[in-house]
Design brief:
67 residues, 1 helix, 4-stranded antiparallel sheet, alpha+beta
Length: 67
């Protein structure tokens, strides 16, 4: 398990955090969205990547931080 911070190009207003396995969604003033929070395992990480890909969003940064 780890804490992740993901920055994507574009705004994701209207999406619920529950759709992203509980990651917190924050719209940034520069037109990007920050997703952050804990993911339980590698499968959850790939699940988030697949969701973002299916939405057509460009991932600008994907970082794991040790807690």
């Amino acid at each position: 398990m780890g804490f992740y911070e993901i920055i994507v190009k574009g705004e994701m207003a209207g999406y619920r955090e529950s759709a992203f396995q509980g990651l917190k969604l924050e719209q940034q003033q520069n037109g990007t969205t920050r997703l952050s929070g804990s993911l339980k395992d590698q499968s959850a990480v790939y699940g988030i990547i697949n969701i973002l890909r299916d939405m057509g969003l460009e991932i600008l940064r994907f970082e794991k931080r040790e807690t």
